[in-house]
């Protein structure tokens, strides 16, 4: 009650200040006049009465001050005075202010930039109505799942259980129809790129299928036209589509004539009926589909090769749709889950053979971020990055604290004087805190600007250059708020040392003595402790930089088993709606033939999997012999290739022959296997000429090639076999590899012309070199190498400034002592060595602590390293050597100054 | 003139609350009323009245509004709030208990021990 009244009164006073002042004036004037009038009645003259009234009242100004204080206004006036004072102080020392603000700005900027990345990757909810009400459906089942096919996430937890978030269309429909507990249940499916033909030509576009009630249920409204509605949810309905805002702007120039336009999607006509709002970018973090289609159009637009008549909608054994629901109230969640779990199991029992199988149990997960494969993957790298940026901030913080300490020392006389004149220690503390906070705020301003500019650096380093990056760092109010909060915290942190120092000032001795008072000793101790801290953190960052750089170098210099130089890649994905398996094969052969005719191409081929692209195709294989040690190889890797694959990629054939023109659709099925495959499936035997089976297919081994890395460099070469793509039953998309004589300049145009000559509406996509492709699998490693190196450099610069500052201050303090030493015969070389020894000792403590911390902490990044241990002596030794070198460099200048002192001047110094 | 006594620290607030509890008053009126009731025995520092009034209003024990004085002048009138009344009762009780206790101590004779 009293607190509320106080706050209200304070607010009134603070915001209606002039009213308060005029009221006070009127009230006191009234008092004085009344009193004077009463005194006059006792017979005094008017002047005398007025004089007595005034003297009885006392000082009006100080009474008013007391009144202001009574309503809590003092803090405002004080703050204003403190701020003015702090501003003046900072302006008077521009070099100090510049270095301090730049330090905080840099330290905070990297954090701010990271926060904006975390906002996208971890925190931000989808821009839909009430995202917190959304629940993503998933299920858990025993190891014997009832369904056999799935398209989507699928986790087997050590063979004990299986979890997934995909459902069959039938199950979704049952749940939707029988739902009473949730406000709505809707489905969607991010699908692979589809081929879209507009006036602008053919291109690959990321698409998403949605159920008819998706827009209503998810709470997304279109900004132009209409959304997809339940009326579109019928196979016979005319195909319609809603496009993303960015696609609308990019492809159609944002024209209103876009609505009602027909485009070809996988060769099928689709009418554009609506445009999504700009902020809505789909339901999956890290992907931004441009085309939204009714889910019932799946059999028409993306017919599935394994489903009856291409329809996944009617196959209860094929689980593929993502399902979401919206809660009515938070309290209804448990009962909704229970009732829908029942529906799920009934639906599974009604549509699938369940004898001897485990039934799935329904689960809910927070759906506010949609489908979110990013946060789980990136949480760990982001944590490591956050640890790095916090270290940078702490180093910057230590630096500013040191600068402030030095400043506090030079201001000691001023502070002592103020203390002597009666300023309270709390007043002085507050004064210094204000100055710290002002520095913090200025730094925050700089930091937020730096963070805003650099917010897309990390996503850019992570993105694939030939595939527009979908992750965009968000710089919103939350990022700003966190950055500001961190800035203020930092300010308090770096103000601690100077504040504790200032309040310990001994008034007497400080006033008596000059700059070299007794209290500079704690200043030096505190300053040295800060330097040790800074050096230790810098060592940590440098060790990290060493480890990540060496990891990257190890990966880069890894022998791939093939020659990636001067190889140009591009991908072609003929839509199934237009190309039957036979026609695809014919198309690929035709393109293969045409590519060889392009001038400048010395050799060309194609393959189903691009090497080192983190994508893989595996199967099980059974060799043609039986013995005690033999079984089936659980997993072998497969890459269907064209003629001249081995020559183009430079993979040596060790024995036998490569895949070539002899291998056709009608000739016996053959394969080339790598050495590891031969060794593992045919131990101690000659694999050449033998056969092995994968499922129903049987292959004869016609050649053995050297081991070449398959999906990534980081793991060992897997057992791999290379069949001829021409002998595949149903090839999917293929990637062409062109070995060029010179660079790839001008080649792209020729490739597009050749493809267009065959099929005008067939898009060519993913044009990149094999080296770019390899680099793309090293993005995380490259990112960490770049970040830790950058941060390490920053840390070195800051540590250099810090060490220089402390050493220079120390030398300045000891001029007289050095003068005495030199007068007594010390040589300048000895003085130089003495000072350098001190710098080395100072750094040494930090080096030891830093090395110990590095040994303790680097094991947390062990899994991110390649080809070296976390305790790598080269990285550790290198970091220590560099840091020591920088420390000596920073100490060199003050040391030289000391060594070149003229003893006479030095002795007269005080 | 009766003998004047100095005001004990902290009692001014109590006296102001008491004065205002008898009816709304402007600042000068509070001064007059206290002096009147005390029979001129209490001498109040005139200026110190206002910071006390502002403090009490800040704490929500009294509220003020502008009104007209006896001689038709604009004046700021203070009125007791419910919280102020409670406060006054508690202070009065405390005060009585304190004075009584002290009086007993001072009147103690050796025989009573």
Structure description:
The complex is a heterodimer of chains A (910) and B (113). Helix content of chain A is 51%, strand content 16%. With 910 residues, chain A is of the alpha+beta class. In chain A, the strands form four sheets. A six-stranded mixed barrel of chain A has the order 6-7-12-9-11-10. The radius of gyration of chain A is 38 Å and the shape is globular. The two termini of chain A are 62 Å apart. In chain A, 42% of the residues are buried. Residues 514-519 of chain A have low confidence and may be disordered. Chain B has 113 residues and is α+β, with helices and mostly antiparallel strands. Chain B has one domain (11-112): Winged helix-like DNA-binding domain superfamily/Winged helix DNA-binding domain (Arc Repressor Mutant, subunit A, Orthogonal Bundle). In chain B, strands 1-3-2 form a three-stranded antiparallel sheet. In chain B, α1 crosses α2 (27-37). The interface between A and B is medium-sized, with 29 and 23 residues.
CATH class of chain B: Mainly Alpha
Largest sheet of chain B: 3 strands, antiparallel
Number of strands of chain B: 3
Give the percentage of residues in beta strands of chain B: 5-15%
SSE order of chain B in H/E notation? Answer: HEHHEEH
Taking pLDDT < 50 over at least 5 consecutive residues as the criterion, the unreliable ranges of chain B are: none
Separate helix tally of chain B = 4
């Amino acid at each position: 009650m009293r607190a509320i009244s106080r706050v209200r009164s304070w607010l009134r006073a603070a915001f209606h200040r002039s009213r308060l002042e005029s009221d006070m004036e009127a009230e006191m004037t009234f008092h004085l006049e009344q009193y004077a009038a009463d005194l006059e009645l006792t017979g005094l003259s008017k002047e005398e009465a007025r004089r007595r009234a005034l003297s009885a009242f006392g000082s009006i100004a100080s009474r008013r001050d007391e009144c202001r204080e009574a309503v809590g206004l003092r803090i405002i006036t004080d703050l204003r005075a403190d701020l003015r004072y702090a501003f003046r102080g900072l302006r008077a020392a521009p070099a100090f202010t510049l270095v301090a603000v730049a330090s905080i700005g840099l330290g905070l900027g990297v954090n701010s930039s990271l926060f904006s990345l975390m906002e996208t990757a971890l925190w931000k909810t989808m821009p839909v109505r009430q995202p917190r009400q959304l629940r993503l459906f998933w299920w858990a089942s025993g190891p014997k799942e009832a369904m056999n096919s799935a398209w989507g996430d699928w986790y087997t937890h050590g063979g004990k259980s299986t979890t997934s978030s995909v459902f069959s269309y039938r199950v979704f429909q049952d749940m939707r129809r029988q739902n009473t507990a949730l406000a709505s249940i809707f489905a969607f499916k991010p699908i692979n790129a589809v081929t879209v033909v507009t006036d602008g030509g053919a291109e690959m576009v990321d698409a998403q299928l949605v159920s008819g009630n998706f827009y209503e249920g998810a709470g997304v409204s279109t900004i132009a036209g209409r959304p997809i509605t339940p009326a579109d949810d019928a196979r016979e309905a005319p195909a319609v589509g809603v496009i993303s805002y960015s696609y609308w702007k990019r492809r159609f120039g944002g024209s209103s004539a876009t609505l009602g336009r027909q485009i070809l999607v996988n060769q099928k006509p689709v009418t554009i009926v609506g445009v999504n709002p700009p902020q809505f970018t789909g339901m999956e973090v890290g992907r931004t589909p441009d085309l939204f289609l009714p889910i019932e159009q799946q059999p028409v637009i993306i017919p599935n090769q394994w489903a009856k008549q291409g329809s996944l909608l009617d196959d209860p054994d094929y689980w593929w749709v993502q399902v979401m629901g919206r809660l009515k109230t938070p309290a209804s969640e448990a009962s909704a889950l229970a009732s829908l779990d029942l529906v799920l199991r009934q639906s599974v029992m009604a549509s699938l053979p369940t004898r001897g199988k485990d039934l799935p149990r329904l689960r809910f997960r927070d759906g506010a971020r949609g489908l979110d494969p990013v946060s789980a993957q990136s949480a760990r790298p982001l944590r490591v990055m956050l640890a790095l940026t916090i270290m940078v901030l702490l180093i910057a913080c230590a630096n500013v604290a040191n600068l402030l300490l030095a400043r506090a020392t030079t201001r000691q006389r001023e502070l002592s004087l103020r203390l002597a004149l009666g300023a309270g220690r709390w007043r002085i503390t507050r004064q210094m805190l204000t100055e710290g906070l002002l520095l913090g705020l200025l730094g925050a301003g700089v930091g937020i600007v730096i963070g805003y500019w650099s917010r897309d650096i990390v996503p850019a380093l992570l993105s694939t250059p030939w595939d527009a990056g979908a992750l965009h760092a968000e710089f919103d109010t939350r990022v700003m708020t966190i950055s500001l909060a961190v800035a203020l915290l930092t300010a308090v942190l770096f103000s601690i040392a100077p504040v504790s120092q200032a309040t310990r000032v001994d008034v007497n001795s400080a006033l008596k003595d000059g700059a070299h008072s007794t209290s500079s000793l704690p200043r030096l101790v505190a300053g040295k402790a800060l330097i040790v801290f800074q050096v230790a953190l810098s060592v940590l960052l440098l060790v990290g930089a060493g480890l990540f750089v060496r990891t990257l170098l190890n990966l880069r210099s890894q022998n791939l088993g093939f020659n990636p130089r001067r190889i140009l890649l591009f991908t072609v994905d003929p839509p199934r709606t237009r190309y039957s398996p036979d026609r695809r094969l014919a198309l690929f052969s035709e393109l293969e033939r045409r590519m060889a005719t392009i001038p400048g191409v010395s050799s060309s081929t194609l393959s189903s999997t691009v090497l080192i692209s983190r994508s893989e195709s595996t199967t099980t294989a059974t060799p043609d012999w039986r013995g005690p040690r033999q079984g089936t190889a659980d997993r072998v890797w497969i890459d269907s290739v064209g003629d001249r694959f081995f020559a183009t990629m430079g993979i040596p054939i060790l024995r036998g022959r490569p895949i070539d023109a002899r291998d056709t659709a009608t000739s016996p099925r053959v394969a080339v296997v790598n050495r590891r495959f031969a060794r593992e499936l045919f131990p101690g035997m000659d694999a050449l000429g033998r056969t092995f089976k994968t499922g129903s297919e049987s292959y004869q081994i016609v050649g053995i090639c050297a081991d070449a890395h398959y999906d990534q460099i980081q793991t060992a070469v897997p057992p791999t076999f290379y069949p001829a793509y021409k002998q595949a039953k149903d090839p999917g998309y293929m990637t062409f590899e062109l070995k060029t004589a010179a660079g790839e300049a001008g080649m792209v145009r020729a490739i597009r012309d050749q493809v267009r000559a065959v099929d005008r509406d067939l898009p060519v996509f993913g044009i990149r070199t094999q080296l770019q492709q390899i680099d793309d699998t090293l993005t995380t490693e490259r990112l960490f190498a770049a970040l830790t190196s950058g941060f390490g450099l920053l840390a070195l610069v800051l540590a250099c400034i810090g060490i220089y500052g402390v050493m220079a201050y120390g030398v300045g303090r000891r001029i007289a002592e050095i003068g005495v030493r030199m007068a007594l015969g010390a040589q300048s070389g000895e003085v130089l060595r003495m000072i350098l020894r001190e710098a080395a000792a100072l750094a040494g403590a930090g080096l030891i602590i830093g090395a110990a911390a590095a040994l303790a902490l680097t094991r947390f990044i062990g899994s991110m390293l390649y080809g070296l241990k976390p305790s790598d002596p080269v990285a550790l030794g290198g970091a220590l050597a560099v840091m020591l070198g920088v420390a000596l460099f920073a100490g060199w200048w003050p040391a030289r100054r000391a060594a070149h002192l003229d003893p006479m001047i030095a002795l007269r110094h005080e | 003139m009766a003998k004047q006594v100095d005001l004990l620290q902290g009692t001014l607030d109590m006296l102001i609350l008491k004065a205002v509890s008898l009816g709304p008053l402007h600042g000068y009126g509070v001064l007059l009323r206290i002096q009147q009731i005390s029979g001129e025995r209490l001498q109040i520092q005139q200026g110190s009245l206002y910071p006390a009034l502002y403090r009490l209003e800040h704490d929500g024990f009294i509220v003020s509004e502008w009104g007209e004085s006896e001689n038709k002048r604009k004046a700021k009138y203070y009125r007791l709030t419910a919280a102020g009344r409670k406060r006054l009762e508690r202070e009065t009780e405390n005060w009585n208990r304190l004075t009584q206790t002290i009086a007993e101590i001072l009147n103690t004779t050796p025989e009573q021990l």
